[in-house]
Structure formats: structure tokens, C-alpha cells
Amino acid sequence: QDVAILDYRAPGLAADALAAGFQGDRENAVVLDVACGTGLVASRPQTLGFRRFVGVDGSAAMLRLARNRGLYQELLQCMLGSAPLPFSAGGFVCMTTRGNTSDEEYKDRLESLLAEMESEGLWGPVSVTEVKELIRAGSVQESGYIPGHVYLYRKTSQ
Q1: In 6-144, at which residue ranges do the beta strands (DSSP E only) sit?
Q2: What is the three-class DSSP state of 124?
Q3: pLDDT above 80 (res 71)
Q4: Which 8-state DSSP code applies to residue 26?
Q5: Per-residue confidence (pLDDT) for residue 49, from 0 to 100
Q6: Is 118 helix (H, G, I), strand (E, B) or coil?
Q7: What is the pLDDT of residues 86-123, one digit of tens each?
Q8: What is the distance between the terminal CA atoms of the chain, rounded to a whole angstrom?
Q9: How many CB atoms within 10 Å of residue 149?
């Protein structure tokens, strides 16, 4: 319900980025869902033929909710930036961030981790898309829509 009320656009935007940036066998492509939460974002690429998902989140409670969706082949607990992403197979990673002040720390950690992985030759960017209206503001301190970003990276064959 909250997703509909807040007009949360990340699942559709992530699916669109993944579909546009991937050429090949979608059923066998491995997609890493960073900060997967309840698994909502993976539900949309699944409708486009992607079938193999690995979810990573810092919250055991969120991972339990994601497990209930039945979309993930593997779910791993990991705090973003505290350790390398626990993902060894080749594949794609698609993430979204909100551009509001409450998400600044997460966005900074994410972008730092992406830059580090890119400089080490582990992952390379496919697309980074700025979104003007990612989600409807849900607090009295904000109005309209909150902007954000959709990041699509490809793991190198190391």
C-alpha cells in the first residue's frame, strides 16, 4: 500500500535500466540487488525474463521479507561499505538511491563503494541515470517528489 501511495518508481526504473543495458540470455543472467530490502525491486525485472537474483541487505528482518517473495537464489546479510560485496559470480548490479537528505549517507557510501570497485577493475558502469521523480515525498518536511539515481553496473570476469 505504501508503495502505491508514495508512487515508488524504483522497481520499474531498475527493470528498464537492466533491460536496456543487458544483451543476452536473461534467464541465466545473475542480478545482484544491493540493499534489496523486501525484494520489491527484483519483482519487476523478473517480469521481463530475469530469473537469477542475489540479494544483499544489512537487515536480517528485510532479508526474511525478501525470502518470502521467492525470487532470490541467494540472500546475504552485509552492510554496504563495511566489506566487499559478497558476490563472486559474473553479473549485473542495479541499485537506486533517493536524493533527499535522509539518504545522503547511504548514497555517499554507495558511490564510494562503486568508485572503489571500478578502480579495482571489479565492476564497470553500464548506466547511471538521474531521476527527477523517484518517489513521492512522505513527510511534512518535503513536498512533491524526491529525486534519485538508478545505477547499473556490470561485474568484470575476474
Answers
A1: 30-34, 52-57, 72-77, 92-98, 123-136
A2: strand
A3: yes
A4: G
A5: 92
A6: helix
A7: 666 556 666 666 666 667 777 888 888 888 888 988 88
A8: 41
A9: 18
